[in-house]
Specification:
Blueprint: E1 8-10, E2 13-15, E3 19-21, H1 30-38, E4 43-50, H2 51-55, H3 59-63, E5 74-79, H4 83-96, E6 101-106, H5 111-114, H6 126-142, E7 147-148, E8 154-155, E9 163-170, H7 178-188, E10 193-199, H8 210-220, E11 226-229, H9 235-245, E12 249-252, H10 261-272, H11 280-298, H12 300-314, H13 321-328, H14 334-341
Parallel strand pairs: 3-4, 3-12, 4-5, 5-6, 6-9, 9-10, 10-11, 11-12
Antiparallel strand pairs: 1-2, 7-8
Helix pairs in contact: 1-11, 4-6, 6-7, 7-8, 9-10, 11-12, 12-13
Bound molecules: flavin mononucleotide.
Residues 22-25, 27, 47-48, 77, 105, 107-108, 166, 196, 229-232, 252-255 line the site of flavin mononucleotide.
Length: 345
């Protein structure tokens, strides 16, 4: 197998590799992104962040955008339905964070979001997708205030960061619009496009269409990178997606839940064709590091509540997973988790 691992250029953002962590609500926070960065993810996104909440100066929303100190580059993903609010939100993101990229969510299928005219409903209206993307691109290019750097010091903003979009292939089987959406995004100045090969109507059912990813790669023709997404569960899937579709980067969501070492394995597999298994205790140690970061960010009780679901994912596939889960969902303190996992650490 030739080396499928390579750098990616998104506008003026140079990434060392082509293995990305997807945006995931309640999953891809700074704590988990930090673990994934350690495990080899080259790039990651925040979960979707409301443009309305950003312009309302909502501190809790600002907290959702913070950078993990060890990540080399990350994107803040925003969603919204009006050009004005999205442009204003983009300026807030620039003023508050050191993110290297701003991503527009055009893929969220959740009715709470689509009913407001945001998320994947934008794939039904490529003209609106164009207007929103253009407004955000112009806001980012026209921004002239200082921005925080990685250490939080305010610095001059000299290089406009790239704006990217993440779409589904369409609304339903009657509305397969990904090419129109890509064209709209390109014309509006987006510098990469990520595609999840399902329609909104499919939700997460069925198989993601990699054929569609390939067609999008052909359609875009190298003008901007295409990031392939959908159903990468094991490292071999990542290699196959790159080979079958020609996508510039792969983006992993569900396959990375409680499984940060998937990035280590994908990188190894893309580079050498091999996969080295990771011992269970090493995986668990990553979970404990995640928990420690969550405790720092939110305090022990909220962190432990979050870790109930997250540790349940960490033990997935392990022989005693079922018994462990029964205990995990009752844990309230860090000490409870330590007690549960003592035999395995
Ligand atoms: C729990 C969860 C939360 C998600 N949150 C977001 C989100 O905030 N923004 C977004 O663009 N996609 C979101 N997605 C979609 C994923 O980024 C991805 O497109 C989808 O899961 C398909 O990839 P996969 O097959 O690797 O899981 C979410 C998916 C899951 C499972």
């Amino acid at each position: 197998m030739t080396n499928l691992y390579h750098p990616v250029q998104i506008g003026n953002l140079s990434l060392a590799g082509n293995v990305f962590l997807a945006p995931m609500a309640d999953v891809s926070d700074a704590s988990y992104r930090s673990i994934c960065a350690d495990c080899g993810a080259d790039f990651a996104y925040t979960e979707l962040i409301s443009s309305e909440a950003l312009v309302r100066d909502n501190q809790k929303t600002f907290d959702m955008m913070v950078r993990a100190p060890n990540e080399k580059a990350y994107a803040v993903q925003i969603f919204g339905s009006t050009e004005e609010t999205m442009a204003n939100a983009a300026r807030v993101v620039l003023a508050k964070t050191s993110c290297e990229c701003l991503d527009i969510n055009c893929g969220c299928p959740v009715p709470k979001v689509t009913k407001t005219g945001a998320g994947s409903v934008l794939t039904r209206e490529p003209e609106k997708l164009y207007k929103i993307t253009k407004a955000v691109v112009e806001a980012v290019q026209g921004y002239c205030d200082q921005r925080p750097d990685i250490n939080g010091n305010l610095v001059a903003y000299s290089q406009p960061i790239p704006v990217t979009v993440k779409i589904r292939m369409g609304w339903d089987s009657q509305h397969i619009t990904y090419k129109d959406c890509a064209q709209a995004a390109l014309e509006a100045g987006a510098q990469a496009i990520a595609i999840h090969g399902r329609t909104t109507a499919q939700g997460y059912e069925g198989k993601a269409s990699w054929e569609v990813i390939k067609e999008l790669v052909d359609f875009v023709g190298g003008r901007i990178p295409v990031i392939g997404n959908g159903d990468i569960k094991v490292p071999e899937d990542a290699a196959r997606m790159i080979q079958e579709t020609g996508c510039d980067a792969v983006m992993v969501a569900r396959g990375a839940r409680g499984n940060p070492f998937i990035f280590t394995k994908i990188r190894e597999h893309l580079t050498t064709g091999k996969i080295t298994e990771i011992p269970f205790n090493t995986t668990l140690e990553a979970g404990f590091r995640e928990m420690a970061l969550l405790v720092e960010a939110f305090g022990e009780t909220p962190a432990c509540m979050k870790m109930r679901g997250r540790f349940s994912n960490y033990v997935k596939g392990f022989d005693g997973a079922k018994e462990l889960r029964l205990k995990i969902v009752q844990a309230k303190t860090v000490a409870d988790f330590q007690e549960i996992f003592k035999p395995y650490l």
